[in-house]
Amino acid sequence: MTRPDPRAEAAAVFNRVAFGYDNPAMRFPPFCADRLIVRLNPARGAKILDVAAGTGVVSMAAAQAVGNEGRVMAIDLAENMLDRLQEKIVKFGIPNIDLHVMDASVLEFRRGYFDHVVCSFGIFFLPDMAAGLQEWMRVTKPGGRVLFTVFGKQAFQPMMEMFIRRMERYGASVPDRQAPLADPESCLKLLNDAGLENSEVHAEQLGYHLKDEEQWWEVVWNSAMRGWVEKIPSDRLDSFRAEHLAEVRTLMGEQGLWLNVETLFAGGTKPSSV
Q: What is the pLDDT of residues 54-103, one digit of tens each?
């Protein structure tokens, strides 16, 4: 039997969550986008590729940083996500972002086309992350930066462990508890193996308090976790949700429910000889 294409599966999930991805409970993507572009610190007029752009939080931060004389190419396989970005481009009159439905592993750009390539919370969806990173390097100019972000080991804990255990009780397949690239060492190895120079990884806590467990469910339902939830039979989903949220409610504190968003910022420079 033919195995499903993980890229197609991820695109399908993100097409379904697109209209809720900018939910106020999902504040960590824009938080991360701002920090990512601060770390990149691109020059005015630079040309940047935003891989797995989604609804465009990184693209918009990059577009502002490079100015109207610069350019941002936003690519994603989920057309509904890019449609949301297009709405923002029109609403805010952003003149320097171009959108393309494109596979992050097979880029339709010539070698050395971009000053920098960035990807926020997207590299772990690639079936072959090493090959994908090589492709990103190919389209980067010598001396340009390639930066990506991933979740650290403590991200979304302890709710994530509760979520996975509950899924197991419902007989649903669960994600790997040891996510790839969840530690600095794995990120550095990927960067160094790709041949990037001056590679570095920095951890930052981008977490915040949710109002209650219902907002946690908004994070679940409007993110990649929705694809996991949808493996539960529809006639059992309401009971799963009620039981999971009752357990999460026990974590509530005086300020609400803490959402740990441990984030790793990883990147390096393309050598001038490549």
A: 999 999 999 999 999 999 999 999 999 999 999 999 999 999 999 999 99
Residue 47's CATH number? 3.40.50.150
Residue 18's domain spans which residues?
6-152+178-207+263-269
Q: How many domains does the chain have?
A: 1
Q: Cα separations (Å) of 82 from 21, 106, 129?
A: 12, 18, 22
Note whether 244 and 219 are within 8 A (CB). Answer: no
3-state secondary structure 225-251: HHHHHCCCCHHHHHHHHHHHHHHHHCC
Distance between CA 85 and CA 62 in Å, rounded? 13
Where on the phi/psi map is residue 49: left (φ > 0), alpha (ψ -120 to 50), or beta?
Answer: beta
- Cα–Cα dist 217/221, whole Å: 6
- Would residue 98 count as lying in a domain? yes
End-to-end CA distance of the chain: 40
Q: How many CB atoms lie within 10 A of CB 94?
A: 18
120-151 residue pLDDT tens: 999 999 989 999 999 999 999 999 999 999 99
